[in-house]
Amino acid sequence: MEAAKERAARRNRATPARTSDSQPAHGSRAESIAHQRRPAKYQSRWAATIFTSALLICATMASTAVLLTCWTAKQPVDTGPGHVADGPPVAASELPAADTSPQPETPPVRYELTAEERDTVERVVMAEAGGESYEGQVLVAQCILNAAEKLGQQPSEAVVTLRYAKGRPEPTQSVRDAVAAVFDRGETITDEPILYFYAPARTTSEWHESQIFVIEVGGHRFFAERSTQ
Questions:
Q1: In the chain, N or C: fewer CB atoms in 10 Å?
Q2: Are 38 and 32 in contact (CB under 8 A)?
């Protein structure tokens, strides 16, 4: 034992522990110890590098997950059954019930007027009942419509056949509304098929009075045709 220690001491005295550049001298005990510690030091560095890389990867994945969650939250929610837009799913019972009640049908036009025919009818009604009430204007429009249907003529022809006023003044909005009510929507003041009328304050007419009297509104008396049979 003492001999081994003596040999080691002589070897250390013969071989300096470090060279001039502070590196362990070749063959010295310091070099041997450094050589033994070097793998452990490299292993520690490698482990630290792996650990740091793992932390970076975990942090990156966590950041990506947060960004993905935020982006997903901003997307519109499926609006299919049981869902509402931009919100959480709801039960189907909470959705408003579809309106299955029958919808009112738009009534067909009673008599299709061209723009020219409408203008003629409006001007005739204005000439005959421009100073009358709305009801009186509707009754005159009824007479024109009934005459056109009975005679199988256009309204512009029927007013000539029945010798309506020849003047054609500009119609008022009330007259336009009355003509639209009768020809477009089929509205009436009376259900009787009135065809004739006259103004007793302006003239007398035994012929009109020989027909079937129906109604008097304002300054006009209205009649349905008396059958000749």
A1: C
A2: no
